[in-house]
Amino acid sequence: MIRDSLRLRLLAAAAVAIFAALVLAGTGMSWFFERHIEQREADALIRDGKLIAGGLHVDAAGRPVADAQPGDDRYGEAGSGLYWQLTTSKGSAHSDSLWDQNLPLQPGSDREDWRIRHVPGPFGKSLLMVERRILPEQAAEPVLVQLATDDGPLHAARREFNRETALSLGLLWLFLLIAAYVQVTLGLRPLTTVRRQIATLRGNPAARLPGGHPREIAPLAEAINALAQAREADLGRARKRAGDLAHSLKTPLAALAAQNRRAREAGAVEAADGQDRALVAMRAALETELARSRAAAARDAGHSLAADIETQIENIIAVIERTELGERLIFDVHMPDELHVPVASEDLTELLGALIENAARHARVRVRVRGGMAEEESQLWIDDDGPGLGRESSEAVMARGSRLDEAGPGHGLGLAIVSDLMQATDGTIALGRSELGGLEVRLAWPVERSPAAPRKSAFLRWMTRHR
């Protein structure tokens, strides 16, 4: 899961790195705190030791005597945890708190300054001890001055400090993780922008990613633009080849049709009829392949503006009105200005032309073409007041080559081509009963598939749902 997400990778790396840094910081703070409190206790013991050293002398037997003693009452309370001791080779003296115990002696205590160390002490306690050898006046040998305190409270203070520090660092880790999430989100935001811009490339071969990207993303944007340019060139060549194929095959087919007419005039009616059926099949196959080519190209086609939709519909109707089918009909067109559909202009003409012509063929008096936004979709409706279709007929008419009016002209590819174009542009087509009484064809495309639509379309969609 983490391998599949750059965001999770960055957040996981940040979480581990921050955690390791805080662990090191917590360990360092614990060590410094321990050193600090030990030094404070040692300084207090050294002050008491200096007070004792100020009144230190030895008696005639060479035993040490302390004329001045610290004022802390714990030195006089047995096992209180605060002790002093004076030692020479002739004897020793100690505080009442030691009772019948002694502080441990260790060789090498002949330093001229105070030494701090941890030692096991009396009453089963561990001690923090300071010691120094001092030579009193008129003394033959130095006196070892030792002061010690129970280090249990020091360890307890360190443990309390560690608990509070761990809690504080844990909260800090969470806060820094949230900050890292914000940082990663802001850092990846340009990629989100690029993703939205790529959606435009998907719908329009001529579109390119705009400039102004961060330096780290600029090479990616340039590579995508180069790929889009190559794709546009490939689409152009494919469309040209399809057009060339259509023109190159139409001429031989027209020539064969002319020969069939001459053969029929010469009396070879049966042979001419067979050739006509073969020509119809060839034209159907040709238009099928060209429709598939147009549908594949439409998958990467540009967007049609609302004004273009209405203009194309009017141009189609203007052509149909000049025919025998259209001159007797009334055409109603209702198209909102905000409507956008993700279909290229030439493919939209192919799509609407087939549907409007089909509606005109079956309508009695009226054909209606309208568009709008519904359920976050761009929709077009083409309906008529003709006989309409039943449920089984609606399913059958979408099959390639299937027709309901077998006596009429054509080869039954119109609605099948429309279905191919709708699938290629991620749209849907549905047949139903029109309010006019005839067939209703509904075309729909998801709004999110139209990245070129203005930002205000979100507000318009809201108004559409709530009006």
What's the topology here?
Blueprint lengths: L5 H49 L1 E3 L5 E3 L15 E7 L2 E4 L20 E6 L5 E9 L8 E8 L1 H52 L14 H48 L3 H30 L7 H16 L8 E5 L10 H18 L3 E9 L2 E8 L6 H7 L16 H11 L3 E6 L5 E8 L10 H10 L1
Parallel strand pairs: 8-9
Antiparallel strand pairs: 1-2, 3-4, 3-7, 5-6, 6-7, 9-10, 10-12, 11-12
Name the features.
single chain, 52% helix, rod-shaped, Heat Shock Protein 90, alpha+beta, 467 residues, five-stranded antiparallel sheet, 3 domains, five-stranded mixed sheet
Determine the strand fraction and express it as a percent band.
15-25%
What string gives the helices and strands in order? Answer: HEEEEEEEHHHHEHEEHHEEH
Approximate shape: rod-shaped
Overall domain count: 3
Could you name the ranges where pLDDT drops below 50 across 5 or more consecutive residues?
300-307, 400-413, 449-467
CATH superfamily of the largest domain: Histidine kinase-like ATPase, C-terminal domain
Largest sheet: 5 strands, antiparallel
Oligomer: single chain
User: Tell me, what is the CATH class of the largest domain?
Assistant: Alpha Beta
Please state the structural category. Answer: alpha+beta
Strand order across the largest sheet: 4-3-7-6-5
- Helix content, binned percent: 40-55%
- How far do the termini sit from each other? 44 Å
Supply the CATH architecture of the largest domain: 2-Layer Sandwich
Count of DSSP-assigned helices = 9
Would you report the number of β strands?
A: 12
**Average pLDDT for all residues:** 79
Find the CATH topology of the largest domain: Heat Shock Protein 90
Query: What would you report as the Rg, rounded to the nearest angstrom?
Result: 48 Å
